[in-house]
Amino acid sequence: MDLERLNLALRAILSSWPKFKRGFPWRSETDPWRILLAELLLVQTDAAKVSAEYEKIVRALPDPQSALSVGEEGIAELLRPLGLYRQRARWIVKAAKFIIEEFGGSVPIKYEELRRVPGVGDYIAAAVAVACGGSAAVLDVNVARVLSRALFGRDAPRRYAYDPKLRRLAGQVEWTRDLLCALLDFAAKVCTARKPRCEGCPASASCAYFETRRGA
Known about the structure:
Endonuclease III, domain 1; Endonuclease Iii, domain 2; 0% strand
């Protein structure tokens, strides 16, 4: 029953995606390195800020070998507008070195292999795998919020990544790149952390959170 309700909500979100869709340059990428690079840049950073710098960054770092050639100092300077630039530079160089040494310079697209790359956690590995046409259970703070509200009528717990119910549900979703992007946009524009726009929400008919607020 939970999965049926969840699928109804996700289908409603995906079908209404054009109404709240955001346009980011990395969403049209097919190169796994560029997709991975975008995910590393998005950690703790507003997507609009990354979008403004993205093309300049991928021109300078088109592949793992170029990241080693530019080096930490050069990458840090390149990433200065995004903040956390020294930390990000270390991530990128370590990831690039590992990819060259372990995978011959080709970014893996399977979740289990991506998870081995330094600096790549559960969410980034899953997001890259899904963006490259694979399957993985995607769960970040935004996904967790939408799933928890839709099915349980409440916000996700602070330690959402360790919640067995949320992890099980995320694992049952048939993830695609479009669905993930639609869900992230929905979380940013409609099902926001504060003051969610429940009235007029496309998923309200299948949402326990909406029912709870309506009955309050």
